[in-house]
Amino acid sequence: MGCEWPPVAPCGTTRERTETGFGPGSALDLFAVHLVLLGDSTAFHNHEERLPLDDPRLYQNVAAAEIETRTGWPVRVTALVRAGQCTPDVWRLVSKDVWTQQVVLPSADAVILNFAGGDMLPVGIPTWIKDLIPRVPQPEIRRRLRATYWDRHADLVRITKGRMRTVPRKVSLELWPRIVDLTRFYSQAPVITLTCQPVRAPHHGDLDPHSRQHTDDLIAMAEERGVPYVDHYPIAEKAIDDLNPVDGMHWPDYMHQEVGEQLAEVVIEQLSPFLAGTGGMPRRRPGTERAVGDAPG
């Protein structure tokens, strides 16, 4: 599956940034703390609707605003996000996409990961079979297959008792650490991750057999790789009744706020030695360091 470009937006509206002298390409932008988010649709949805990437209610923008308030330095957010983006999709992004490797990641002061939550969603048929539907050459058959899949998905999940995950566990366990290693190689920046959340969704048969184990897996991998994390599982547990009633995944505004505040705390902690050591300046500016040598596989 490819990536939709350009999935990029700064924190705050372009007009606001331009009027204050800070926007992409401006002189002050060179002195902004640059956060890169590799994520899924929680980066542009609340529990009710799809939102613009620069909406201040979204967790990454809450974090950016909090960092600006507490440090006094502007923050720019680049969001490489897509609906349904899971671990294999992000692996393809960081291992194959040259723009990400040579432009986006090297300019990052911190990289935030929040894409693995979709790995654990229960499915009624293996994902690799579902992914063949767009490749069916006959348009009418393709549309009929897609409609049938969506109509019967919940029934299939219940019949199979939710045993199958969107991404098999062994694939998540294999690729997630490789994403961390490759992201560090290209960015030379701290990597921070979110974990996973419980889900209550009619589309997935109202079953949630994998989220707790997947959260534990992510925490274990993060600790093994020395990746600081925000565990938003307990936050989502408290907000479970206010998640999107259809997909059971997207967060109410108050959950975005709490996750963003916790994320800001971790980012500030990771960047504080560099900020303090340079009188408030981020540790380096975009493009001043480039990864050399062979990337880890």
How does this model look, in words?
42% of the residues lie in helices and 10% in strands. The relative contact order is 0.16. It has 2 domains: 14-120 and 167-277, SGNH hydrolase (Rossmann fold, 3-Layer(aba) Sandwich), CATH 3.40.50.1110; 125-159, no CATH class. The two termini are 20 Å apart. Helix 2 links the parallel strand 1 (33-39) and strand 2 (75-81). It has 10 helices and 7 strands. Mean pLDDT is 85; it is low at 1-28 and 279-292. It has helices spanning 14-19, 59-71, 87-96, 98-104, 127-130, 139-159, 169-187, 211-225, 233-238, 253-277, and strands at residues 33-39, 75-81, 110-114, 122-123, 164-165, 191-194, 229-230. Strands 2-1-3-6-7 form a 5-stranded parallel beta sheet. A two-stranded antiparallel sheet has the order 4-5. It is an alpha/beta fold and 297 residues long. Helix 3 (87-96) packs parallel to helix 7 and helix 7 runs parallel beside helix 8.
